[in-house]
């Protein structure tokens, strides 16, 4: 499983510079970028009258190329500019367009809007008047397409600088995905994200998108223990641990023990044990502690036993209120922790920067894999690698879905040695199960979908 690279603005510029040093001119790249957007627009909008908004620099330059290429396909194109071109390549692209250009304030509404105002160079928010015109024109269009990134978003952290911006139907990412295509609030504006190959070689990146994992079916020589033995430590609220244990079973763990709590029920194949003696069983491949644990003295005893057992740990929910980065750092086997934003801040404090920066800093601080959950889940490894999930259905914002994720992480950790890869596989399965469950899902519905999405990974 190696996800697609995600490049920051600086990394993209470096990749482009290397490509240009190899002899490909910036004008050639701009022509490729514009051609890719024109092709995508043509496919999406079937030649309807199109308004292209062009900014002063290279994103605007791409826009002039789009306009020229759509005109060559016979499309009725109107170009509106925010000021005169201020980069040599944007100027050359405007000259090559050669047609009329109106001021942004005078732009007429058209069925299709192509936004090439600002791209990866944007360093501050759009002026309110510019944002208002953009939102108005987008509202009047049937199809809205952003060139590279929606204008007005910060490429590296997905911020919108507090400005109201349009929601697009499609964003054509040039050369590679950028963080803004995956981090909120920007990601929610992008619509469908299409990555256009503009011939810029992109080297392996520390930052990637989470891709579909490879989870081969068991072989003839496998038995229940080789498929992964998971111990889920229960506590005050047995339902949460039961959800997690069932998720681990459905994700393919060969033997799942629910231990330490008072819960009964679940699938018949689930093994219930009193106490935490199961932790001494050397066949246990992964231990989950946290869902339904509670925060009392009993919870602390259970957590202490888990921390002492020397097995790969997954810590979630209440366990995250009872550990510290120093304790995690002291573990012989790196743990996986799965905090939402509130648990993250409680555990790691207020860290600066984007979600990527914060997750990365926390993973380094605690020497563990951090799954920072949310609408834009970010996973960080202690060595600096970070993976971002594709946007998951907002229906996941409901009780118990985190417990299901924790069970999936434990099941994947039991079969995948690299905790960073295991966490990615689990997050992918969780998102795919939510997609399959559809609207108004509850956590139990995810359990029914896990088998289906695991089979899609064989
Ligand atoms: N790199 C490549 O090889 C290729 C890149 N390509 C394309 O280039 C795009 C990046 O282009 P870019 O770097 O020229 O910046 P871009 O995003 O057009 O404009 C930002 C500039 O605008 C300004 N500015 C900033 N904020 C502002 C504000 N709020 N309101 C007003 N002005 C503001 C600020 O300039 P300043 O005002 O500070 O002088 C800043 O520098 C990229 O997304 C892709 O589409 C393709 O052609 C393929 C090859
Ligand atoms: K744009």
From TrEMBL:
Positions that bind (6S)-NADPHX:
58-62, 119-125, 148, 240, 292, 340, 403
Q: Where does AMP bind?
A: 373-377, 402
Give the cofactor note: Binds 1 potassium ion per subunit.
Question: What cofactor(s) does the depicted protein rely on?
Answer: Mg(2+); K(+)
**Could you say which residues bind K(+) here?**
59, 115, 151
- List the source organism: Sphingomonas arantia
Subunit field text: Homotetramer.
List, for all copies, the residue spans of the domain called YjeF N-terminal.
12-206
Domain of life of the native organism: Bacteria
Q: Which reaction does it catalyse?
A: (6S)-NADHX + ADP = AMP + phosphate + NADH + H(+); (6R)-NADPHX = (6S)-NADPHX; (6R)-NADHX = (6S)-NADHX; (6S)-NADPHX + ADP = AMP + phosphate + NADPH + H(+)
Protein's UniProt name: Bifunctional NAD(P)H-hydrate repair enzyme
Q: Which family does it belong to?
A: Belongs to the NnrD/CARKD family.
Among InterPro entries, the record links this protein to: Carbohydrate_kinase_pred_CS, CARKD, Nnr, Ribokinase-like, YjeF_N_dom, YjeF_N_dom_sf
YjeF C-terminal domain sequence ranges: 207-457
